[in-house]
Specification:
alpha+beta
Length: 282
């Protein structure tokens, strides 16, 4: 018997089964104190079985052997976030699941890809948007052009033009210039205006063509006399990453605070899309 086989026998490793029933030498263990990584792999495995996706399908997409793919599901080898993203694509899962997936694998990972370039819907993306109970929209690029919105968004913002194949409103222009915005946001309107302008300044730098920036700024300047005030104060990183809260007039006539969150993409693709969600605070 070889030394390797003898060592495996001494630590009690079994030839098959889930990770929960197996033991490993210290160097082979994958740290997973709360079981999040194992739960993620179990969920992907169950989804694959229900969808009829095989290990061979994953192996082809990952350009790896079937044995290597099996090791990921057994937690004998840790998959990278990029590999998990590829597995989700094979399963036709919406890319906006990326934050949950990245959080399960690497809690400190904050930059995730939510959209695609060029902008196109994947299987389940529009279904996911419709399933969100609070106002939500897919936005194209740092210019914040709504590409698709859910029913809650339409109910909250009836004054905002609905995006179509022929009409693409700009969220920044609408917030600053549409009379309905001041009524909907109330005391939070100036905060919403400042957020919209600063978002474009911070994330659009060197990504948005100067001609397009100038056009957007000119539209806002004509429609809002305070535009230059919103343009000048640029917050630091700590301030910008703080939770943004707006008080919004709800369809039932009550004003409630909502958190504003954009699930951001990788900015080398400025025309890709993001998910903006306004979540009421209990």
């Amino acid at each position: 018997m070889t030394e390797k086989a003898s060592r495996s026998r001494r630590v009690g490793a079994q030839p098959g089964g889930s990770r929960r029933n197996r033991t490993y030498p210290p160097m082979d263990r994958i740290e997973d104190a709360f079981g999040r990584k194992q739960s993620l792999m179990d969920a992907l495995d169950a989804t694959a079985r229900a969808a009829g996706v095989t290990r061979e399908d994953f192996a082809r997409a990952l350009n790896q052997s079937v044995a290597s793919v099996t090791k990921y599901f057994r937690m004998e080898r840790q998959a990278t976030p990029e590999q998990i993203d590829t597995m989700c694509e094979v399963l036709n899962m919406p890319k906006v699941f990326g934050p949950n997936i990245a959080g399960a694998l690497m809690p400190w990972l904050t930059v995730v890809e939510t959209g695609s370039f060029p902008p196109s819907w994947g299987s389940g993306d529009l279904e996911l948007l419709r399933s969100i109970g609070s106002p939500a929209a897919y936005l194209a690029g740092p210019q914040l052009y709504p590409m698709a919105v859910n029913e809650a968004w339409k109910a909250y913002f009836p004054w905002m033009p609905e995006p179509t194949a022929d009409t693409r409103p700009n969220l920044i222009v609408e917030i600053l210039c549409n009379p309905g915005a001041a009524h909907t946001f109330g005391d939070s309107w100036r905060s919403a205006c400042r957020w919209a302008v600063q978002h474009l300044v911070l994330f659009g730098a060197h990504k948005v063509p100067n001609e397009e920036l100038g056009l957007l700024f000119e539209q806002c300047r004509r429609g809002n006399p305070d535009f230059d005030e919103y343009l000048i104060p640029i917050p630091g990183e700590a301030h910008f990453t703080e939770t943004t809260t707006w008080t919004i007039l709800c369809p039932d006539g009550a004003r409630r605070p909502h958190t504003v969150k954009i699930l951001g993409q990788k900015w080398q693709f400025p025309e890709a899309w993001d998910l903006l969600v306004l979540t009421p605070i209990p």
